[in-house]
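Quick question, first post here. What does this chain look like in 3D?
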Amino acid sequence: MNNTITLSESKPNIKLSVDGYYVSPAQQGIYRLGTFYDVSAGLKWLFADDRASLTLKYNNIFRSNTPRYIRVDTGDQYSNMHTIDDSRFIGLAFSWKFGGYKEKQYSKVDNSRFGK
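> Answer (accepted):
Ran it through. Tokens below.
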């Protein structure tokens, strides 16, 4: 799921995004995987006539985007692996859109030497 909620459209222009997914238990070959899911959120502030933005993002809020357990049951091999998710992070990004870009006009390529 991906959701964007406009908190304020005029000044200040602020948007909230909430993203997530859920994967049920699965079997991949000889591996049995437990459930895993992810919830992430972010705030985006647009300013300077929407040319600049400041984004604060928090990924993997609940530390749950890797399977909690992985089991291998095949032949004489039986093993269980319990994982600890350590991949969450907080990020801050700034971007600026430069205005006034005009594409350069090129003359037509001379391809007469190719016999066309």
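The chain has no helices and nine strands.
The mean pLDDT is 90.
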